[in-house]
Amino acid sequence: MLCPQVDAAPSWRTIDLMSDLHLQANQPATFAAWQHHMAHTPADAVFILGDLFEVWVGDDICHSPNTPEGVFAQQCLTVLQAAAQRLALFVMHGNRDFLLSADFAKQSGCTLLADPCVLNFDGQRLLLSHGDALCLGDVDYQHFRRQVRGAAWRTAFLAKPLAQRIAVAKGLREQSESLKADGASYADADPAMVAQWLQAAQATTLIHGHTHQPADHSFTTSTGLTLQRRVLSDWDASATPPRGEVLRWTKGNEPVRHRPL
Fold first, then answer.
1. Is the four-CA dihedral 168, 97, 116, 246 of positive or negative sign?
2. CA 210, CA 80: separation in Å to the nearest integer?
3. What pTM, to 2 d.p., does this model score?
4. Which pLDDT belongs to residue 224?
C-alpha cells in the first residue's frame, strides 16, 4: 500500500490528533469546547481525522449565509481560519463529511489528508486514518461507503439543489439516530486488516477514530513485530459525563490523552 506522506516540519515539537467532533448547530457546547481548544492549544500542528462535521452536503454551504447551515459553517470556518494563522492544520474526510473539498480547504486554511496517510514525526511512521474503511464487520455500511465515495454518486448528489441535499442529509441523520436509539453499536476495526495496513505502510502505530471506542491496543504479529492501534474519542460536551479527548504527542515523550472538556 503506497500511502501519501506528511513530513513534520523540523520546528514541530507537539501535535494534537482528534476526530469525530460531529460539529452541528444544535450542539453549541461541543462547538464552544472545540473553539476554545483550537484557540489555546500549544500544539504546532493539529490533525483532525474525520467527522469534523456531523454532516457536510458540499462546499457551497460556505456561500449560503441565508441558511442556518451556512451560518454555522461560517462560524466553523472562522475558528479554522484563526487556528491556521498560527499552526499547521490538517483535516481528513470522515464518513459524515466525505464531501469536504478544495473550496473548503482554501477557505479554512487547512490541508486535506488522504485516508490513509503516513505522518513522519518524532522519528516514527504513524499511519493515520478515519477508521471506517477498517470496520469490515459493518457490511451494510461498507456497501454504502463504496457507493457514495464513487464519482458518479458524488456528481449526481452535488448537482441537486442545496435545499434538497440538506433534506437528504437530515433524513440520514434521523435514520442514524434511530439506529443508535435501538442499541446499534459501531463495528470495531478488523485486526487482520489493521495489521495488513500497518505492515504495508511500514508503520508500527495506527491512529484512527470512527468507532467512538477510545483505547490503546498493542498486538504482536506472527513475525514477532509489536504493533499499536490508538483509537481517538468522539466529542459530545452535553453527554454525562462529557466526552472528548485530544491525543497529544510531544517529541521524545509518549502520547497522552488530553481532555479539553
1. negative
2. 21
3. 0.95
4. 84
C-alpha cell at 127: 499511519
Average pLDDT over residues 211-232: 92
**Is it the case that residue 239 has pLDDT exceeding 70?**
yes
pLDDT of res. 180: 64
3-state secondary structure the chain: CCCCEEECCCCCCEEEEECCCCECCCCHHHHHHHHHHHHHCCCCEEEEECCCECCCCCHHHHHCCCCHHHHHHHHHHHHHHHHHCCCEEEEECCCCCCCCCHHHHHHHCCEEECCCEEEEECCEEEEEECCHHHCCCCHHHHHHHHHHCCHHHHHHHHCCCHHHHHHHHHHHHHHHHHHHHCCCCCCCCCHHHHHHHHHHHCCCEEEECCCCCCEEEEEECCCCCEEEEEECCCCECCCCCCECCEEEEECCCCCEEECCC
Which residue in the block uniquely carries the three cell numbers 495488513? 196
For 211, the grid coordinates are 468507532
pLDDT of residue 252: 96
Residue 231 has pLDDT above 90, yes or no: yes
